[in-house]
Write a structure and sequence with these properties.
The chain has helices at 15-26, 38-49, 65-79, 102-130, 142-145, 152-171, 189-192, 196-203, 214-225, and strands spanning 6-9, 30-34, 56-58, 84-87, 133-138, 176-183, 236-239. By secondary structure, the chain is of the alpha/beta class. The chain has one domain (6-239): 3-Layer(aba) Sandwich (Rossmann fold). The protein has a 7-stranded parallel sheet with strand order 3-2-1-4-5-6-7, sandwiched between helices. α4 links the parallel β4 and β5 (133-138). α4 (102-130) runs parallel beside α6 (152-171). It starts with 5 loop residues before the first strand and ends in a 6-residue tail after the last strand. The structure holds nicotinamide-adenine-dinucleotide. Nicotinamide-adenine-dinucleotide (NAD) is lined by residues 11-17, 35-36, 40, 62, 88-92, 111, 138, 140, 183, 185-186, 188-191.
């Protein structure tokens, strides 16, 4: 579905991003995954190579707009186009507000929101040139309902929805579609790090009766990136087993 589409995926070394990188490459996209460390990027590339899947990888500091601009330019110089960006890197939180330091709050906003802005700002000129492009953001079910602890996380995901809808309005005339996927509880390291007391009550609210798998989210990204979604922009697609909390 994505033949030769040059696709950048942040947080592509594990979890949802890794599964998405794999699925996109299987659909013949040229995938460039970003990770936070050289070592994890290498490991992800090697893991995919064992399945005969070739991807490239970089590890720019996502909190450094200049560094991002330089890596994106390098990718553009090599491929002559950037078709799809998936802003997926993210961290969560679960502490009470009194226990959350200012630094911890800033760290979440810096990665979950600011980095998505830096990345999008870096690719948009190339997409405008081509008069086509797809930007996909990773929101969360907490962007709809909030969350009773770790306020920085839902705050960041509400912001991502705002960024998605606003850029869809701004960039539609250049044939650049901007959408988000809002996963429910998904089986990755992020959830493994959360306390059981937080997960169990949430699972009871899932009509489909199971936790999501990374491939469930990757499939939604694939749909939204593909021509099948050519008339969809500004959408926040819930992929959460029907959860309501
Ligand atoms: P994960 O922890 O398995 O993966 C996170 C990815 O982000 C990794 O590839 C990691 O390298 C990258 N990352 C983390 N810190 C980084 C940094 N400082 N700089 C660059 N990259 C960094 O988590 P996941 O569950 O796959 O999460 C992916 C996205 O999905 C996140 O945006 C998350 O908020 C969202 N999400 C996850 C769930 C869930 O239940 N797992 C639910 C809703 C939304």
């Amino acid at each position: 579905m994505l033949k030769n589409k040059v696709t950048i995926i942040t947080g592509g070394t594990r979890g949802i991003g890794f599964e998405t990188a794999k699925l996109f490459a299987q659909n013949h996209a040229k995938v460039i995954l970003f990770g936070s460390k050289e070592e994890s990027v290498k490991k992800a590339i090697e893991k995919l190579k064992k399945e005969n899947i070739e991807v490239e990888g970089f590890f720019p500091n996502l909190n450094n707009g200049k560094e991002i601009e330089e890596v994106v330019e390098k990718i553009y110089q090599k491929y002559g186009q950037i078709d799809i960006l998936i802003n997926n890197a993210g961290i969560s939180a679960n502490k009470k507000i009194e226990d959350t330091s200012i630094e911890e709050f800033d760290k979440i906003i810096n990665l979950n929101v600011n980095a998505a802005f830096y990345m999008t700002k870096a690719v948009v000129p190339y997409m405008k040139n081509k008069q086509s492009g797809v930007v996909l953001n990773t929101s969360s079910m907490v962007s709809l309902y909030g969350q009773a602890s770790g306020v920085g996380y839902p705050t960041s995901k509400f912001a991502i929805n705002g960024m998605t809808k606003s850029l869809a309005l701004e960039l539609g005339k250049y044939n650049i579609r901007v959408n988000a996927v809002a996963p429910g509880i998904t089986n990755t390291d992020m959830v493994a790090n959360l306390p059981k007391e937080m997960i169990e009550p949430l699972l009871k609210t899932v009509p489909l009766g199971r936790i999501g798998e990374p491939i469930d989210i990757a499939n939604a990204f694939l749909f939204l990136a593909s021509p099948m979604a050519n008339y969809i922009t500004g959408a926040i697609l819930s992929v959460d087993g029907g959860a309501k909390s």
